[in-house]
Amino acid sequence: MTYDFVNPPDRRGTDSQKWQKYAGKDILPMWVADMDFKSPPAITAALQERVAHGIYGYARPVKSTVDSFVNALEQRYGWRIDPAWLVWLPGLVVGLNLTAQAYAESGDEVLTLTPIYPPFMSAPKNSGRVSRQVPLRLDPATHRWEIDWAALEAAVTPRTKIFILCNPHNPIARVWRRDELVRLGEFCVRHNLVLCSDEIHCDLILDELPHIPTALLGEEVARRTVTLMAPSKTYNVPGLGTSIAIIPDDAMRARFVRASAGVMAEVNILGFTACESAYRDCEPWRQELLQVLRGNRDLILDFVSRELPGVTVEAPMEATYLAWLNVSALKFADPIAHFEAHGVGLSDGAFFGVPRGTHVRLNFGCTRATLTEALQRMKRALPAR
Length: 385
Ligand SMILES: Cc1ncc(COP(=O)(O)O)c(C=O)c1O
Description:
alpha/beta; 7-stranded mixed beta sheet; 4-stranded antiparallel beta sheet
């Protein structure tokens, strides 16, 4: 290993939201989705250089920043985009909220598949739109989360305007396949829906699976698509608040920009710097990160199956650093409180749209040592056999 994924700095007592939650308590924070690793050294060097310049005025991305992102999309996914399609955002959740405001009226409906990252459900509600959720179905034969196509069709009403996709899907760690994406694209075309495709985790695929940008599925789909991407998850720079909406259709993009007028903050200058370096200089670091995350993923699979009776990983974990654990057999009324009492801070499945007590989410973007300790603590939290 060239990079250090073993001895990161201690985040206790810092501005870390993740670690502040349990300040002063012996609870390992395995919840909010940032990693405990240092960002790539190239990003830090670029930021240091930018800071040394000493002037931090209002910024616009320079050509090298745009080129870095555009080139990465072409090299990694074969997606050739026109820089004019980009709208820079101070966060990806901002993009989810703007999408709801730009393409739906008050009372209109926004569809998504659950369990899902909570802002997919709250963003529409923030502006008086209605969130409609279609539960994914765990196929007992394939052990994969599948789209319930009949339920998805049945959920459409004359007021449905937007479908929000998460690919790869947080929290089930699933990479959607080409045939599924094609079918989703057809579904959106048939019902005349805007397709918002959150691809923030697309550079964190752990298995040998391709990421297929939704907008690559053809003209008709691309024309109705808002793709949301960011360097934040992969390169651990979410605190720098830099995300990107890619909107090929001019009229769609104009509506999106109009919805942002007066309420959207400028993108932070340091975020532009980090973004440029991330997509251009940090591929070797990303490859090592993926190795570390694969190791952590495999440790979880092994440990859960051998040492945590009553806890199950229901489906393959193909992407992200987030593990979705079924704990329903434990019959804890409040699994989060229970595991916290034993020193592990997890995310509550209830926030992702499933009944409380059935699932928890564990963030394994941490050192092997922290993960091992968290799993040992979870083991001690289980009822005696
Ligand atoms: C699917 C997904 N979208 C968006 C975000 C957050 O994006 P941001 O912090 O840029 O608003 C997350 C964070 O976990 C996420 O998992």
